Amino acid sequence: MRRRKPIEGFILCGIFFWTIIAHLISTCLAIQLEERMEIVRKVLKEVPLIDGHNDLPWNIRKFLKNQLREFRFGEDLRDITPWSTSAWSHTDLRRLKEGMVSAQFWSAYAPCSSQHLDAVQLTLEQIDLIRRLVNLYPQHMALVTTADGIEESHRSGKLASLIGIEGGHSIGTSLGVLRTFYQLGARYLTLTHTCNTPWADCCKVDEPGRVPHIGGLSHFGTLVVTEMNRLGMIVDLSHVSVPTMLDALATSKAPVIFSHSSAHAICNSSRNVPDHVLKRIAVNGGLVMVAFYPHFVSCGEKATLKDVVAHINHIRDVAGVDHVGIGAGYDGVNLVPQGLEDVSRYPYLFAELLESERWTEEDIAKLAGRNLIRVFRQVEQVRDQLEAQGMLPIDQSIPPEDILGRSYCRYSGPRT
């Protein structure tokens, strides 16, 4: 039998030693993570976790033509085609419960190609879809239209389902349509999507070589914001140009939100919020709900949970902890950060934040939902104040010259 040389024994001992050390470190980190996860679970039992944007309704249209009899939302969609083979699928009731999500804004979306055509009809159909989906699962979901409703639903253990309209083209340049959407339950309107409307510029005009159409909001655009204040509908500035952001902030009497955007200083996508606007958000009392899409987080196709944390921390540093929230954008993206693969992963994001001493349980509660509830209540308070002042619905129409050459399907008879 060959005897080991002293050096070989030393090497083996070293390997054994460092293996034990690595195991101990791994075990310690696992314990620390579980301790932080317990804190997160405690916070999310007390405070509703609210996500600002999910595009599942459009996927139901895309995959199932809005036929809900074929949609098994209560099951794990990772095991059911076509969801199991789609990079765009991240949401079902099981994973929402695992992620401790208490309230979700579902997007009623119509693509920009429908502008001046059937955008209003498509949006109505998506609102109808969201309402029908909620009605199919009354033990698990509840349609909610108020800040109090979010908290009541959280206490009852149901998923508060709210409707957000993604894109100002959905109102068809009509304040009457805007009011009707509100009556049907919509509680925010994203002023543009990735296309200009006749009354507002989108983020695309901020890109190099692009020319603004309006330079922000037109006069009619300011009327849209004013009427939203009167209704109690939240103004959402995700997707809009920077001048549109500033015009909306100057017009709105109520706090505004970005339902799914991140920090421009970290990733210079035109979809993100620059620092000077973040400072205005703090003055306005509004909220930036951080998106998870890698192209908005790392400006590339790959990102990690830590990259999302960097955006949250930056918005906190510039605007303050009262002005940051979560708006992942699941089911509207085909790429997600490592560690945030679907709606079940939110607690890990909060646990990562708790690793830093600067984040307290109260801070996590604000980020998770208290900030959005505060904004929502302030929007409702402005509505009530305007009603008390006797403000009536705005009955002005968009000037014909603003839509000249852009409206392909429009009745040319008498109009109000």
UniProtKB/TrEMBL annotation:
<dbReference type="GO" id="GO:0070573">
    <property type="term" value="F:metallodipeptidase activity"/>
</dbReference>
<comment type="similarity">
    <text>Belongs to the metallo-dependent hydrolases superfamily. Peptidase M19 family.</text>
</comment>
<protein>
    <recommendedName>
        <fullName>Dipeptidase</fullName>
        <ecNumber>3.4.13.19</ecNumber>
    </recommendedName>
</protein>
<keyword id="KW-0378">Hydrolase</keyword>
<keyword id="KW-0449">Lipoprotein</keyword>
<dbReference type="GO" id="GO:0046872">
    <property type="term" value="F:metal ion binding"/>
</dbReference>
<keyword id="KW-0862">Zinc</keyword>
<dbReference type="GO" id="GO:0006508">
    <property type="term" value="P:proteolysis"/>
</dbReference>
<keyword id="KW-0336">GPI-anchor</keyword>
<comment type="subunit">
    <text>Homodimer; disulfide-linked.</text>
</comment>
<keyword id="KW-1015">Disulfide bond</keyword>
<dbReference type="Pfam" id="PF01244">
    <property type="entry name" value="Peptidase_M19"/>
</dbReference>
<dbReference type="InterPro" id="IPR032466">
    <property type="entry name" value="Metal_Hydrolase"/>
</dbReference>
<keyword id="KW-0482">Metalloprotease</keyword>
<keyword id="KW-0645">Protease</keyword>
<dbReference type="GO" id="GO:0098552">
    <property type="term" value="C:side of membrane"/>
</dbReference>
<keyword id="KW-0224">Dipeptidase</keyword>
<keyword id="KW-0325">Glycoprotein</keyword>
<keyword id="KW-0479">Metal-binding</keyword>
<keyword id="KW-0472">Membrane</keyword>
<dbReference type="InterPro" id="IPR008257">
    <property type="entry name" value="Pept_M19"/>
</dbReference>
